[in-house]
Design brief:
21 strands; elongated; six-stranded antiparallel β-sheet; five-stranded antiparallel β-sheet
């Protein structure tokens, strides 16, 4: 008996099938005229209906000419099935259509093309989302130093993704896909912990296999890893264990450093207080080493509900409170307070240095942290040192005073001897030598006088010292001559006492030399200029006059003058400087030296 289907015409079956398809069907002739469309095409392109009789590019793409790289034209040309993804449909959100073109042949010639159009928008969207998800997962795993592993338990093999070598520092070809390779690189001290975590999960005692352990990297160092996995295929007896491993070495090292830092605070010299941000300043935390400074244990301080003020000496509370209040009201983040006193459990006084940091949240003081250092012993030593220094300074001042007095006595004795010799038949040279020696001693005595007067014996004021010295030298050697002295001594320059003595002796010799040898006519005035100036990081001590000067062949180095020889030796050997002599336009001696030389 024939099947009932044999009674249905084939054409009817084909027509019904084509019209029920969810894909669009078009039949085009060689002129790209639409000869037939199924209902799906009419639905998609209803705005351009009727479609039959129109050009495909007009009806489907609203264009005036065929599309570029049209698959239908290629099928007419090649006689093969062609494919292309195009954008569509009109007047809707962006869609993507996959077009297949099937050539219709008659006696070997292509007389028409059947276009089968499928909407693949959702598929492409899903593929795009899947790609983006994979990319995000890859970035997350790379950024988070994650590696994925797949452990076939019965085979004893472990497959790793490319993140594993990155985490462990190995090249991909160096990572072996075996359980033995993985176990051999676990730190010996951590293997038991790993096995316990693994056994607990395989026996169903823990939902996951998770643990942290150290793993040997390619360079031989140990890196902390966090391993997290779970049985897969549980319904088949748990043949696979799948998981991820993450580099937690930085966190573990940071935790270790934090513990060490806490240990330093607990045992170090700095006591840490955390005080509330309100007016009570209640102590909310104190480090354990508070007991070494104040005698209270940290638990005892918190249990008693101390505020910061209650531990401060009563005489210092007001000052500390005012300093802290000014800093808070000014919105400061930190303050270093003047040292103040705190009281121990036994009532003893301890001096402390307080560095306080204010913690603000949205403009409101949340709390402040005080770093307290016990400076009691340091203050005691400083006080003792100041007393010792004051005693030494007083002793040194007394030494300078006595030296000055003794030198003045010697100078006076030389003056007395000079006056006695003037009444006898003694050469003028001998008397002059006594006069010069007396003045040199006076120059040294003046330095000790200045040193005695100043609070810092290594910072002599040249203006005061040199002015007195020049005036004294002029009184001794000027006699009744007509003279004018111009002095220019820098007030902002200070000299070491040794330099002051050498400069004083040089200045005494050069000024005396001008009065003794810069001969001018009796009616003329001797103009003498002297000073100490600063230039190019050096000091220059100079004396110039308007005297008749020296002969052309004169040389300081060859001079037999005791005074000039003394000047040259003091300038070059004691001041480590340079003696400069100029003959024109006026006679000038200058000593250039560094102010830093002792």
């Amino acid at each position: 008996m024939d099947s009932p289907l044999t009674e249905i015409p084939v054409d009817s079956i084909m027509e019904t099938t084509i019209q029920s398809l969810q894909e669009g069907i078009s039949v085009l002739n060689r002129d790209l005229d639409i000869c037939y469309v199924n209902p799906k095409m009419n639905q998609w392109y209803s705005q351009n209906s009727p479609l039959v009789g129109k050009k495909c590019y007009q009806a489907y793409h609203n264009c005036s000419e065929p599309c570029e790289k049209c698959p239908t034209l290629r099928s007419f040309k090649t006689g093969e099935i062609e494919k292309k993804v195009v954008e569509g449909l009109p007047d809707e959100e962006k869609k993507y259509l996959e077009v297949y073109t099937y050539p219709i042949k008659k006696e070997g010639d292509v007389v028409g093309v059947v276009e089968v159009v499928r909407d693949i928008t959702e598929r492409l969207r899903a593929e795009t989302e899947l790609k983006e998800t994979r990319e995000r997962l890859t970035l997350a795993m790379d950024g988070g130093q994650l590696g994925v592993w797949d452990w076939k338990l019965k085979k004893g093999t472990i497959d790793y993704n490319k993140g594993i070598p990155q985490v462990l520092g190995y090249r991909p070809e160096e990572v072996e896909a075996s359980e033995a390779w993985w176990r051999s690189r676990i730190h010996p001290a951590d293997r038991e912990i790993v096995d316990q975590a693994l056994t607990a999960h395989l026996n169903g005692e823990a939902e996951y296999f998770k643990t942290e352990y150290r793993f040997k990297t390619r360079d031989g160092n140990w890196k902390w890893l966090y391993d997290h996995g779970r049985l897969a295929d549980a319904e088949r007896g748990g043949q696979r264990l799948v998981g991820v491993v993450r580099d937690v070495d930085g966190r573990r090292r940071a935790q270790k450093a934090l513990v060490e830092e806490r240990d330093v605070f607990a045992r170090g010299p700095v006591v840490v207080f955390k005080l509330s941000g309100d007016e009570t300043s209640k102590i909310e935390y104190v480090s354990e080493n508070v007991e070494e400074v104040l005698g209270y244990s940290s638990e005892e301080v918190l249990a008693k509900g101390f505020t910061g003020d209650e531990l401060i000496h009563p005489e210092d509370v007001k000052r500390v409170y005012e300093e802290s209040s000014r800093a808070r009201q000014g919105g400061q983040n930190s303050i270093t307070m003047e040292p103040y006193r705190m009281l121990t459990k036994e009532g003893e006084v301890r001096w402390v240095q307080d560095n306080t940091r204010f913690v603000w949240e949205n403009g409101t003081l949340s709390h402040h942290i005080c770093y307290i250092v016990d400076i009691t012993e340091r203050r005691q030593k400083d006080a003792e040192l100041r007393r010792t220094l004051a005693e030494k300074e007083a002793l040194l001042q007394e030494v300078h005073h006595r030296v000055k007095n003794n030198l003045q006595v010697v100078s006076s004795l030389l003056q007395m001897q000079k006056y006695r010799l003037q009444d006898r038949e003694v050469s003028a040279a001998a008397i002059e030598a006594l006069e010069e020696s007396s003045q040199r001693i006076f120059a040294m005595a003046e330095v000790h006088r200045e040193t005695y007067r100043t609070s810092n014996p290594d910072q002599i004021d040249p203006e005061s010292y040199f002015t007195r010295l020049v005036e004294s030298t002029a009184e001794v050697f000027a006699d009744d001559s007509n003279y004018n002295i111009q002095m220019n001594f820098c007030a902002n320059v200070k000299l070491h006492s040794n330099q002051a003595i050498y400069c004083g002796l040089i200045l005494n010799e050069l000024v005396a030399n001008s009065f003794q040898h810069a001969a001018v006519n009796s009616e003329d005035e001797l103009r003498l200029e002297t000073g100490l100036v600063e230039k190019d990081d050096n000091l220059t001590l100079y004396v110039r006059d308007n005297g008749r000067g020296f002969v052309d062949y004169f040389s300081v180095e060859e001079s037999d003058s005791l005074g000039l020889q003394l000047v040259r030796l003091l300038a070059e050997e004691q001041l480590v400087g340079e003696l400069v002599f100029k003959k024109q336009p006026s006679t000038e001696f200058a000593v250039i030296f560094s102010p830093s030389h002792d």
